[in-house]
Amino acid sequence: MTPQEFANQVLQHQRFVQGKPGGKRAELRFIDLSGLRFPRINLSGAILTGINLSRSTLHEADLSFADLFCANMQDNDSEGANFYRADLRGAQLHGAKLRGANLSEADLRPGTLAGGDPRPASADLSDTNLERAKLNGANMTDAILAGAAMAGAEMKRAQVIRTNLSGADLTGANLEGALVQGADFSGATLAQAKFKSATLAQVNLKGVAMDRVDFAGAEVHNTQVAKRIESFPAGVQEMVRSHLAWANSGGREGRRANLSGLDLRDVDMSGMVLNAADLHGANLSGAVAAKAALMFVDLSRANLTKADFTGCDLRGANLHGAILEAAKLRHALLSSAPIRGADGKTTTRMWPTTIIGANLAGADLADADLRGAALDGANLRGADLTRANLDGATMASADLRDARLTDTILPESMRTAS
Which segments of 231-323 does DSSP mark as H helices, in order? Predict the structure, then answer.
């Protein structure tokens, strides 16, 4: 489509919206408008199926009632835009700026384009800026909002069903009357959020900051809450305290923690510093270690099933033979770690993260940094490696069947082979 043809369609669409003669609904299916600027454009009700609006600017644009089914809007700037009742099923909005946007009653369920990947694509709003956005009545079933900035967002009566909100900032968000079912809030911030008269069933609230959350009149069923380290035996607590002193003093005080083989299921280690701790063979299934510092930690043969390591620093860690089925490792650092010299500043060599023979089936590794990691023989079947960086990684005999590899940076040997 030429620029003139696009301009003509937009002009005809304005007449259509205003009910003037000569008007015609815009049909802009699958066209590439990436990187362009359209502030305040009115495409209300337009057919925009599969359109590429990545990196484009749509400040205060009117996209209400628009068909944006499976649209690519990654890194798009739609601050203050109107998406009221828009069809955003399967849309890709990773990294988009939607601060103050109106997504009330928008449809954010999964969607699949004919002829493409047969698996339904969830609407990806991970790391999106949705501060003060309006999502009242929105259908957010299976949507991905991991790490999204949603402070002050309005989500009244929204359908938050199986929605991934792990690590999201929902400070002061209003979910009054919302249906929150099977949603994942692990590692999220819910301080001062409102759940008045909401229904919460089978919700994951592990590692959630919930200062002054309003649950007045809410129905809460089968919620999962992580166990703080303070709830574990005194001996475990003392080892952790001693390890913190050891890590902070460069080994001059305290002692390295030996937590090998312990049952630490559902423990909350969010934000903790446990660099170089010995946790080999430990049971950490369901644990939350979001944004924790775990460099050089020994997690070999550990059970980390469904554990949450979102944004965790695992550089140089030993995960040899670990079980990481359905674990969350979004934005995790799993690249090689620098070994410092005696001066504590000079890097003498790089130490790779060892994930050899680990079971990562169904794990979420989107946006993870795996540069130089050793993944030989690892089971990555069905794992999500969207936008992950595997440059320089070794992956001999690794199982990548059914893995999501959208925008994944693979090792050079695999790029050459393909």
Answer: 234-248
SS3 57: strand
For 95, other C-beta atoms within 10 Å of its C-beta total 20
Question: Residue 37: what residue type?
Answer: R
- Write the CB contacts of 7 (distance below 8 Å, at least 6 apart in sequence): none
Please report whether residue 45 resides in a domain: no
Report mean pLDDT in 10-residue bins for the chain, 418 residues: 85 91 93 93 95 95 96 93 93 89 90 66 84 91 90 94 93 96 91 95 86 91 77 85 86 91 90 92 92 95 95 96 96 91 73 97 95 97 95 96 92 72
Whether 278 is in a domain gets the answer: yes
Where residue 360 falls (left for φ over 0; alpha for ψ -120 to 50; beta otherwise) is: alpha
Q: Which residues pair with 121 in a beta bridge?
A: 111
Cβ proximity of 358 and 324 under 8 Å: yes
| CATH number of the domain where residue 389 is located | 2.160.20
